[in-house]
């Protein structure tokens, strides 16, 4: 299974419309891949809080339209990263979309853990309430967004729901790049799952982005990692490796669920 992670640069001197067109052409250029992934809030920038209101879109708004077409034109499963969704009641969400190779939306995931403590996303957006998995022909994706990476119980919930490949769409800052790499490997090792984590390049909201998108296998080995700049990271995965790792080192079966705190 070939996966392409598009670490797109998000800079304020490019308009959202121009970036949408560019992102779509980057997706179409990945024809031949099975799965293509974009990062968190790439239309506006994960830290460009002041633009969230103005750039919010309905679920089936311009980002949905452009990405559905790009998935169909490329003939790939597309995790289209996330955008600022304005729900019917006016609440904003950090929402990721997944499309089939025919361009049908098969999933929408609203970020569960909002970043910013007492500011930014944490106060401007609503929190998602649902774990989301997506069955592809060769693997089951479990969806997460950026700050979610710090919450292992979400990933364990996804694994309990069948996830074998954990996808993290992010806009992670350079300042905490060491956490990014460490946490991506930790989520892979503890869940015996692939982790495909894609961040943005560039600087938005005055926050320099880490880039360094990463692919980790179910044994915790880093299969590939990007640099800091815009880049497409393409990796071949063996979906059977999740099953063989879990069979040969069956640590997930040794969980003491009665003692752990409930989700
Ligand atoms: N957009 C985010 O969720 C940023 C998360 C982050 O910077 C961190 O967890 O550190």
How does this structure look, described?
This protein is 25% helix and 26% strand. By secondary structure, the protein is an alpha/beta fold. The chain has a single domain, classed as Carbon-nitrogen hydrolase (Nitrilase/N-carbamoyl-D-aminoacid amidohydrolase, 4-Layer Sandwich). It has a six-stranded mixed beta sheet with strand order 5-4-3-2-1-14. A six-stranded mixed beta sheet has the order 6-7-8-9-12-13, with helices on one face. The chain has a two-stranded antiparallel ribbon with strand order 10-11. The longest helix is centred in the C-terminal third of the chain and has 15 residues, at 177-191. The chain is globular and about 50 Å long. The relative contact order is 0.16. The model has no long low-confidence stretch (mean pLDDT 97). The ligand NC(=O)CCC(=O)C(=O)O is lined by residues 40, 46, 115, 146-147, 150, 171-173, 176, 179. This is Carbon-nitrogen family hydrolase.
Q: Which descriptors apply to this entry?
A:
7 helices, six-stranded mixed beta sheet, binds the ligand NC(=O)CCC(=O)C(=O)O, 263 residues, alpha/beta, 26% strand, Nitrilase/N-carbamoyl-D-aminoacid amidohydrolase
């Amino acid at each position: 299974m070939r996966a392409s992670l598009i670490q797109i640069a998000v800079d304020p001197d490019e308009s959202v419309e121009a970036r949408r067109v560019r992102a779509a052409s980057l997706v179409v250029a990945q024809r031949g891949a099975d799965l293509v992934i974009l990062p968190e809030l790439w239309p506006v920038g994960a830290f460009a809080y002041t633009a969230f209101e103005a750039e919010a879109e309905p679920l089936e708004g311009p980002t949905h339209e452009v990405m559905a077409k790009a998935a169909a034109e490329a003939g790939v499963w597309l995790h289209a990263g996330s955008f600022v969704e304005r729900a019917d009641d006016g609440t904003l969400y950090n929402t990721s979309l997944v499309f089939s190779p025919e361009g049908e939306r098969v999933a929408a995931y609203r970020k569960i853990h909002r970043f910013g403590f007492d500011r930014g996303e944490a106060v401007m957006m609503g929190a998602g309430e649902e774990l989301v998995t997506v069955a592809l022909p060769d693997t089951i994706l479990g969806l997460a967004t950026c700050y979610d990476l710090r919450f292992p119980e979400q990933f364990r919930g996804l694994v309990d729901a069948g996830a074998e490949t954990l996808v993290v769409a992010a806009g992670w800052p350079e300042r905490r790049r060491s956490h990014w790499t460490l946490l991506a490997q930790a989520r892979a090792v503890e869940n015996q799952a692939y982790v495909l984590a894609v961040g943005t390049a560039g600087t938005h909201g005055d926050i320099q982005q880490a880039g360094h998108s990463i692919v980790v296998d179910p044994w915790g080995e880093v299969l590939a990692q990007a640099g800091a700049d815009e880049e497409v990271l393409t990796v071949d995965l063996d979906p059977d490796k999740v099953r063989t790792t879990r069979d040969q080192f069956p640590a997930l079966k040794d969980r003491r669920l009665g003692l752990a705190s409930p989700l």
